[in-house]
Amino acid sequence: MADQTTVLADVRRGMIPAHVYNDREIFELEKERVFSRAWVFVGHESEIAQPGDYVVRRVLEDSFILTRDEQGEVRAHFNMCLHRGMQVCRAEVGNASHFRCPYHGWSYRNDGRIVGLPFHKDAYGGEAGFQRKGQRLLPAPSLATYNGMIFLSMDPDAPPLEEFLGDFRFYLDYYTKQSASGIELRGPQRWRVKANWKIGAENFAGDMYHTPQTHTSVVEIGLFREPKAEKRKDGATYWAGAGGGTTYKLPDGDLDERLRYVGYPQEMVDRMKEQFTDDQLKVIGDDGFMISAASIYPNLSFVHNWPRVGESDDVLPFISIRQWQPISEDETEVLSWFAVDAEAPEEFKALSYKAYLMCFGSTGMFEQDDVENWVSLTNTAAGSMARRLLLNSRMGILEDDEPVVPPLGPDAFHGPGEARTGYSEHNQRALLNRWADDLEKPPVQAATLTVGGPGAGAQDAAGRTSPSANDAELPGGAVAQA
Amino acid sequence: MSTDLPQAPPSAAVTAITDPHPVPAGNPTGDDAQTLSEQSVLGRHASRVQRVGASLPFDDPRHLQAHHWLVDEAWLLDAQAYEDWLELITEDVHYLMPVRVTTALGAGYDTARGMAHFDEDKYSLSRRVARFLTEHAWTEDPPSRLRHHLSNVRTFATDDADHLVVESATLLFRNRGDVREGSFISAGREDLLRLVDGHWKLARRVILVDDSVMRMQNLAIFL
Lengths: 482, 223
Description:
The complex is a heterodimer of chains A (482) and B (223).
Chain A: H1 5-12, E1 15-17, H2 24-33, E2 39-44, E3 53-59, E4 62-68, E5 74-78, E6 93-95, E7 98-100, E8 107-109, E9 114-116, H3 120-124, E10 142-146, E11 149-153, H4 161-165, H5 168-176, E12 183-193, H6 197-206, H7 211-214, H8 216-220, H9 229-232, E13 236-240, E14 243-249, H10 255-261, H11 266-275, H12 278-285, E15 289-296, E16 300-305, E17 318-328, E18 331-341, H13 346-359, H14 365-380, E19 390-392, E20 418-421, H15 426-440, E21 480-481
Parallel strand pairs in A: 10-21
Antiparallel strand pairs in A: 1-19, 2-11, 3-4, 3-6, 4-5, 7-8, 8-9, 10-11, 12-18, 13-14, 13-20, 14-15, 15-16, 16-17, 17-18
Helix pairs in contact in A: 1-15, 2-15, 6-15, 10-12
Chain B: H1 12-18, H2 36-39, E1 51-52, H3 61-78, H4 82-87, E2 89-100, E3 111-120, H5 122-132, E4 145-158, E5 163-175, E6 183-196, E7 199-209
Parallel strand pairs in B: 2-7
Antiparallel strand pairs in B: 1-4, 2-3, 4-5, 5-6, 6-7
């Protein structure tokens, strides 16, 4: 594999070798060093609300059954039968107390424990030949939740999720905790685009600069009143912990007026005032900034916008959570969910969903033009000329690396991290710097596991990620409540 | 002659669109919902007129009119003549394309709960059309080459002489640029056509796409 030292050094000074958006060797490194350790979003607890509910989600090529067991515990089982490696669950959503492998009929409870092994005595000589007791589907190496959002890491020694997210949690709450009940997640719509996964993550992290150009049409048709050029640069971008995002500057008004301006009914405003911290409320009420797009490294993004959804001038806010799931260096599967506060009035939920469909997702009028650009970019990045071109990603800093605009002081922006108004690529650089850090680190050494091997059952040398049935011996088996 | 032909019973896949449908738990529209249009989040306003009986003979004038309507519509959609297309649509239209999901055979549902690709009324369709008419809808500039291949058309009477239910299969081929591979969408459709001032108009459409994961970069198209 080629030495990427120069590539990473260029990225760190804000000069992006264009080929990183379509390069097989880079993609292999990303698989080995980014997605082998990062916390990756796989779903929300509301998608598996009842015991037995499951969805099947992937991290790269690895399929996991995300399920709520009969005790109400959220679990992620590697979707491979311990016997011959068949995919155990071939539906993508459903409710089941057990999963039975269609190949030879091994079956597992929804907590992962094996319960059925046909002809155990005849074929294996019973427990003496194969210890059925203690066997279970392989749990995800690490699993944790924040505000009901379920994340999985392929690294059994991943730092705690809260530590990984860091101060971005402050902003994540705006999207996922508008009331004590949190969000309901619906979807996802899934579709594949011939674009590199990093482009969407960078765009949502901080690209306010594209809005006036790319999304001209949605302003022209009266769908969205905000993204005029002069408006967008008055917003702030922030980076905190594992992520960063963009905001819009709201018109003058107090907290209630500003939340109603984007379309929240007073009862939802009241719940936010109970739920959010003083500083979270001050970002809106005192500082006048409303969250819009955001990304958590590596590949999870958010958007919060407030379009018109009917003939009246009223606007309705919506939230979408989306994942840029890497398929290859030039293909990404987009998973786009609609999120809404669980306590919101039903009428609000319906209109917010309508706002989502009109703006984002597979049919969304914002998203349509974004994807067109990203596909073109990826296609153009494949050739040899792209290897000669360093894209300038230094917007917002001068030649001596001093910022064009100083960060906002604590009185002007009450959120954590570093925030500033105006167009810049600080956040895109922050995202790619983390990426460069990961690409530089040696890969995670994963332990191998033996199923029913002589003596040990299914244990690795360190006893980690063991498919033992005993929860106490199962780090990562049950959800750690972060 | 065709009137003597035996009528094929509706297949399971086709009846799934309109016939009573198990309502998944968590369905936001309530317990009474039966059809996909009723189960959808935004279909409350939609007409509930349903088919009656077996499909009409192929030489029945109602079938000929419905088939003619669909062929004319396909040519409008290929040409992206979307303003003309909107003229063919009633004010109370419900235009629905559920998200298909892979579920176990006995699950009783194969569409996502509370989520669709399209769940549209006349207003939202008109905004989509208006956007294509701006000079800044980049995803269709340069425009795609589109071909809606239409087949398997059959028509059903309803209790109301001014309404017909028409089913069809559509295969959309979309190609962009010069060397990019084209992409396909295969779908079954069930339409409710209504006679308005002597012209058939689309009052309800349910599109059952055959992909769970769409293989098209966006749905800046209509089916």
